[in-house]
Automatic annotation (TrEMBL):
Gene3D superfamilies given in the database record: 2,3-Dihydroxybiphenyl 1,2-Dioxygenase, domain 1 (3.10.180.10)
Domain of life: Bacteria
Annotated ranges, domain VOC: 11-135
GO MF annotation list: lactoylglutathione lyase activity; metal ion binding
Pfam families from the UniProt entry: Glyoxalase
Organism of this sequence: Amycolatopsis saalfeldensis
Descriptive protein name: Glyoxalase-like domain-containing protein
Length: 153
């Protein structure tokens, strides 16, 4: 019999993203998610920024890619960020519209037909698919109708 060496408690740490334009991506994540630059730097032609909130690292951005995020290849499907309320999701949506960001479905959508949880799906400037959602508050609203399969966008 093999003894497990798996950790007893695992949670997601920070998320590292390759970007094409560090200044543009930094501004996007600051504006949309309210993150702050915790640290940034440059080493020759290599640039990076660490973003977070209240001193906690959430996203690292690395300028080391070209083109757009390839959704048809194996790898990341989307990143999801939880907020406390449906009003916060709607505020993110309004901020995205003001930025001219690409929204999937156009509005707040439930995670499943009739679900109480739901959010807004969008892409960052490099085409990385993102979601901001609230775990409750959608039931009984106009947005709680038919849901797209958030796994297929």
């Amino acid at each position: 019999m093999t003894t497990s060496v798996a950790p007893t408690a695992v949670k997601t740490g920070h998320i590292g993203l390759n970007v094409t334009d560090l200044a543009r991506s930094t501004a996007f994540y600051e504006r949309v998610l309210g993150l702050q630059v915790l640290q940034d730097g440059r080493d020759g032609d290599r640039e990076w920024a660490f973003l977070g909130r209240d001193g906690q690292l959430m996203i690292t951005l690395w300028r080391q890619s070209e083109g757009r995020f390839a959704t048809a290849l194996p790898g990341l499907h989307h990143l999801s960020f939880q907020v406390g309320s449906l009003d916060e999701v709607r505020a993110v949506r309004e901020g995205l519209l003001a930025l001219g960001a690409e929204l999937h479905y156009g509005d707040v959508v439930p995670h499943a037909e009739g679900a109480d949880s739901g959010g807004v799906f969008f892409t960052d400037p490099d085409g990385i698919r993102l979601e901001v959602y609230a775990p409750s508050g959608l039931a009984g609203t106009a947005a709680a109708g038919e849901a797209p399969a958030c796994g297929f966008f």
